[in-house]
Amino acid sequence: MTIGLLFYLGFIVLMIVSAWKINTKANQPGWACLVPFYNIIVLLKIVGKPWWWLLLIIFLFPISFIWTIWMTNLLAKSFGKDTGFTLGLIFLPFIFYPILGLGDATYQGPAGLKQE
Predict the structure, then answer these.
(1) What is the CA angle 84-80-54, rounded to 5?
(2) 78 with 89: CB under 8 angstroms?
(3) Burial class of residue 100 (count of CB atoms within 10 Å of its CB; 0-12, 13-18, 19+)
(4) Given pLDDT bands bounded at 50, 70 and 90, which one contains residue 116?
(5) How many CB atoms lie within 10 A of CB 90?
(6) In principle, which of 15, 29, 30, 114 could form an S-S bond with 20, CB 3.0–4.6 Å?
(7) What pTM does this model have?
(8) Helix residue ranges, H only, the chain
(9) How many Å separate Cα 116 from the centre of its chain?
């Protein structure tokens, strides 16, 4: 194995562990991050949006990036982070997703609304 392949595999494991921890912090099944499409449905539940947003993302492909950015912003807010953190999640996901999942951020409810 080359060093590049080991680095790549380590990166993949880091991102999976981060997504798993984000799900578990939000009281969702961690394994859901491994299942295509279901992982997006769980993420939509975490940020407080309906499941049919997945259909918007899939079928309105030319403008799906708008919903994806919005969903990322809602994810940051769900963990008490601001717009700057959203930009980090978008442009440096390999740094900011581990911070969100493995750091001390706590889930505050969909889009930051504290659940009582």
Answers:
(1) 80
(2) no
(3) buried
(4) very low
(5) 15
(6) 30
(7) 0.89
(8) 3-25, 38-47, 53-59, 64-78, 83-91, 93-102
(9) 23
